[in-house]
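Give me the fold.
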Amino acid sequence: MTRRALKIALSLGVLTVLNCATSSRFRPAKVASDRPLDYPLSAQLDRIEGKVVIGVFVNADGTPETVRILEPSGHAVLDTAAYQFAKTLTFAPAIVDENPISSWTKLVLKYRLTDVVFEKEKWARDVTYLQKRIRSLSDPVSRAEYQRKLYMRYIGLLDYVKKYNEPEMNYTIKGVIQASTVAVWRDFWPEIVSPFALFDDFIRMYPDSRYADKATEELIRLLIETEGEVRVKALHSRKIAQKTSVLIGSLEKRLSELQNPAPQQ
């Protein structure tokens, strides 16, 4: 079954061009670039959304001469990104009587975390592909970009799990992480949904990634939340109550390791 969920890893902004054509003799300027809107990673991770309205004076050769923010989003990170993005665009200039002219045009840039249908199989295929790409790349810039995409896929699943706490999601999670990580959390798989294992696996696989600190913060938060969940479920499930000490012990052990890392040799 598919459900609606936030998918941050593939969040793309929406670009709209607004013009007011006054007659059939006039054709407004249009964006000619095919590049996607740049959605800053920091804004995605912090769940920042917004709309920026940009005014662009387009020369007769299609280049943007002047860029102005007409309506800010209220978030500096989005306003700056929108301004810089608009400066890089190329346009098909406005036309009057078949002659190109300089004119103003308006862009509406929407940065939003899009509601999409979450498909477990597709998510798992995407994650597996990204992991393979990371293993095949030696260029640090390219590796970092694919690690970013992978991290955002993990965030996407986390948002789904927050809405739909389904134990069968563990089969999907187990299918994309290392066997060693699966073994570490083996006591959780039958009854406790464990998206934290994704972030644990990420920092084990990519300890030097620029996103490792962010993954560690997310992991610590999830481990603490899971400890509370285990205690509550133990009140209603004899099966969980019987192994509460084991589950809590595993969580606290990993928390201690993360908060008090062993000194490097």
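The chain has ten helices and eleven strands.
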